[in-house]
Write a structure and sequence with these properties.
Elements: E1 3-14, E2 24-36, E3 45-57, E4 64-76, E5 81-94, E6 101-113, E7 119-135, H1 139-144, E8 147-155, E9 158-178, E10 183-196, E11 207-219
Antiparallel strand pairs: 1-2, 2-3, 3-4, 4-5, 5-6, 6-7, 7-9, 8-9, 9-10, 10-11
Length: 221
Amino acid sequence: EHMRAVVALSAGAEKFHSYDGLSRLYGGVLGEVQYRTSGSFGAPTFALFTRFTGEQFESDLRDGYRNSTGFSVRKPVTDRITLFGAIAHNERSARSSVFTGRDNSLRLNVDYAATESSTLYLTGEYRRGDTFSSGFSSLASLDIAKVFARDDVFTNPQLFAYRLEARTAIATIGYNVPFGPRDSFDFSWRRAESQSVEGPSPYGKSRYVVDQFAAVYLVRF
């Protein structure tokens, strides 16, 4: 009456134009146990989840898998506004130790039903743990890196991949427009800022900022 179990399968592909090595195929499975206190409209839904994803890149260093385990809660506020929050522990295993790591994350999301079918959403996420970056060989990068290796994607000129501990904040605003019960277009703008935890050397902390714009076609089977 109050609980249910959900299993979902997913698969996808990404193809990059300038750097073929970042292109990938991936497939995953999500398992979730949900609990809802009652059938009333405003009752929250609590969930324990685990997600496993396998990835195959055109980069041998990056091939591997990811898994994420955590706790989430979803609560409708009005007939148009829904809140979602999740705490998770994430791990990644790859052929290269550079792309093997773990982090903890906190995510908050607000969905707003702009029309009867379309949704405007705003997401904020904070991560603390291992992250990965590619750049030119430098004493500043070596000083804070846990592991480094020649990157097999960025080879002209040759860059190095580094694994380091960092704090990362990600903000996303997007709009989802369905075309039917099973497919939709999703448009979003994402801004990510990451800063290394270590940085006592005279070089200071490493910082990375990027804006990403995406248009995604989604299909549900």
